Amino acid sequence: MRTGQVTHFLAADVPSCRRPVPALDYDAPLFFHERRAAAAAIDNMPMELLPSNVEDVMLPVHVLCLVMMGMMLNATPERFLRSTGGLVNPVAIR
């Protein structure tokens, strides 16, 4: 999912990288589950809304996707200037 937040990160615009950022809400895992998604990618740091919209749950998207659905993949790309993609070293843990 492209939020546009990565442009602030690459420009080292630290204040713009802080909360609130465009991100996933607690209903995103249902969308992933209905489509049998194995992984999700987003161009912001937290992936989900901070602070959470769910009372007493800090990271509900992480809890639902990682713990309840078993989606655990880290594929952070190398940082290449003036490119449209980069190498990744994906790690899946079950």
Description of the molecule:
This protein has helices at about 5-10, 15, 30-35, 60-70, and strands at about 75, 90. The longest helix has 9 residues, at about 60-70. Strands 1-2 form a two-stranded antiparallel ribbon. By secondary structure, the protein is mainly alpha-helical. The protein is globular and about 35 Å long.
Please provide a brief summary of the model.
The protein has 94 residues and is mainly α. The protein is 27% helix and 4% strand.
- Largest sheet geometry: 2 strands, antiparallel
Succession of helices and strands? HHHHEE
Spatially, the strands of the biggest sheet line up as: 1-2
Q: How does the overall form come out from the CA principal axes?
A: globular
What's the overall average pLDDT, rounded? 79
Low-confidence stretches: none
Number of strands: 2
Q: Output the number of helix runs.
A: 4
Supply Rg.
Answer: 14 Å
> Structural class, judged by helices and strands?
mainly alpha
- Please indicate the percent range of residues in DSSP E strands (runs of 2 or more): under 5%
Termini Cα gap: 23 Å
User: Roughly how much helix do the residues carry, as a percent range?
Assistant: 25-40%
